[in-house]
UniProtKB/TrEMBL annotation:
Signal peptide: none annotated. Mg(2+) binds at S174, T194. Keywords: Cytoplasm, GTP-binding, Hydrolase, Magnesium, Metal-binding, Nucleotide-binding. This is GTPase Obg. The lineage of its organism: Bacteria, Bacillati, Bacillota, Bacilli, Lactobacillales. Residues 355-433 form the OCT domain. Residues 2-160 form the Obg domain. PROSITE patterns: G_OBG (PS51710), GTP1_OBG (PS00905), OBG (PS51883), OCT (PS51881).
Length: 433
């Protein structure tokens, strides 16, 4: 059974850590006060949390960037910067979060309240208090905060249609669907029919959203396996509210009340439970000449049968009467329980969780045409970003760290000569033998 996939790509950026501070105590009566620069605070994480009230990824269509706050910088008098608050982003149950480029799975969010840290905030840089040693009791050295993680992620949600549009072909279901819905999720092609159900995400005026599927015209006898067949009816089985679209103009030469009973008999023949679904009747094409007259006749017949049904007058083409239907539909969804789904395949679904493995190779060396050596690599760039180049001691420490990583040796092996220019990001220095 193929499923509908609602998919959206968003950018998340966790907060950077605050910078550490270089400061000294400057009090009366304290000769040569020691170091007093505090650490920076940690940047905010970006945490996704499941909210069972959400049904679709609609909200992410309008907001594709999520950025957590940075940690505060360290201050003098040994005061540490404050850590930033985490940013919580709500997602519907069943959301899968992947890396947009590599497809690596970050989280599979299922239960209400479940949380996953999708991007980690950077740790705060250490202030100069941390670098004091007996040999160097007054260090002029502090780190900048670590950058927060930034990622392009893809959210995927398998959606089931909450609401089904039923009715004969050409009663205006597709038009109705195209008018009320915006986003088109990706749709799996049904293997048993060339007709793919149209699917739309619908948002009501008060901000609730649901998934609406146009069930391609049920053909008399489908319950016996003619036409679209059982597979498709099984998809209808999942919906919790049915919108029964009836062409009130009778322009195709059919009688509206007969259409109503034919389709409902189909549902009954197939499975009695479908008749227990709340059903709203949409009297469509009400802008046509005979519609009003036919509607009066239709209501009379329904009254005679003793059935209680809600009828909404609509013209999909001129978009009249749609708001009332959608609002009523959203209300019904809230009060109708979910029907159990029997989908053998989805239990079996393989979920492989990849552990995030940092690269072992910490740097790459390239030579540019003008002879400059360019160093790149995650660990190296992070060191560079966390070094405060305003203080010579910090620069010296940086030099020791990159020597410790084996970069000097690697450059020498590649043929770097005394006085060659080496560049990291936008920082250039001379290679010294």
């Amino acid at each position: 059974m193929s499923m509908f996939l609602d998919q959206v790509t968003v950018n998340v950026k966790a907060g950077n850590g605050g910078d550490g501070m270089v400061a000294f105590r400057r009090e009366k009566y304290v000769p040569d006060g020691g170091p007093a620069g505090g650490d920076g605070g940690t940047g905010g994480n970006i945490i996704f949390i499941v909210d069972e009230g959400l049904r679709t990824l609609m909200d992410f269509r309008y907001n594709r960037h999520f950025k957590a706050k940075n940690g505060e910088n360290g201050m003098s008098k040994g005061m540490h910067g404050r850590g930033a608050k985490d940013l919580f982003v709500k997602v519907p149950p069943g959301t899968i979060v992947k890396n947009a480029e590599t497809g690596q799975l970050y989280a599979d969010l299922i239960n209400h309240g479940q949380e996953a840290v999708i991007a980690k905030g950077g740790r705060g840089g250490r202030g100069n208090i941390r670098f004091a040693t007996p040999r160097n009791p007054a260090p002029e050295i502090a780190e900048n905060g670590e950058p927060g993680e930034e990622k392009e992620i893809e959210l995927e949600l398998k959606v089931l249609a909450d609401v089904g549009l039923i009715g004969f072909p050409s009663v205006g279901k597709s038009t109705l669907l195209s008018v009320v819905s915006a986003a088109r999720p990706k749709i799996g092609a049904y293997h048993f029919t060339t007709i793919v159900p149209n699917l739309g995400m619908v948002e009501t005026e008060d901000g609730r959203s649901f998934v609406l599927a146009d069930m391609p015209g049920l053909i008399e006898g489908a319950s016996q396996g003619v036409g679209l067949g059982i597979e498709f009816l099984r998809h209808i089985e999942r919906t919790r509210v049915l919108l029964h679209v009836i062409d009130m103009s009778g322009i195709e030469g059919r009688v509206p009340i007969d259409d109503y009973y034919t389709i409902n008999n189909e549902l009954k023949e197939y499975d009695l439970k479908l008749r227990e679904r709340p059903q709203l009747v949409i009297a469509n094409k009400m802008d046509m000449p005979d519609s009003q007259k036919n509607l009066i006749e239709f209501k009379k017949k329904i009254e005679e049968s003793g059935e209680k049904i809600e009828i909404f007058e609509v013209s999909a083409i001129s978009q009249k009467g749609l708001t009332a239907v959608l609002t009523r539909t959203a209300d019904l969804l809230e009060s109708t329980p979910e029907f159990p789904l029997y989908d053998e395949e989805t239990h079996e679904e393989e979920r492989v969780l990849y552990k995030h493995t940092p690269s072992t190779d910490h740097f790459n060396i390239l030579r540019e045409p003008d002879g400059t050596w360019v160093l790149t690599g995650q660990k190296l760039e992070k060191l560079y970003k966390m070094t405060n180049f305003a203080h010579d001691e910090s620069v010296m420490r940086f030099a020791r760290q990159i020597r410790g990583m084996g970069i000097d040796e690697a450059l020498r092996n590649k043929g770097a000569k005394n006085g060659d220019i080496v560049r990291i990001d936008s920082f250039e220095f001379e290679f010294v033998e």
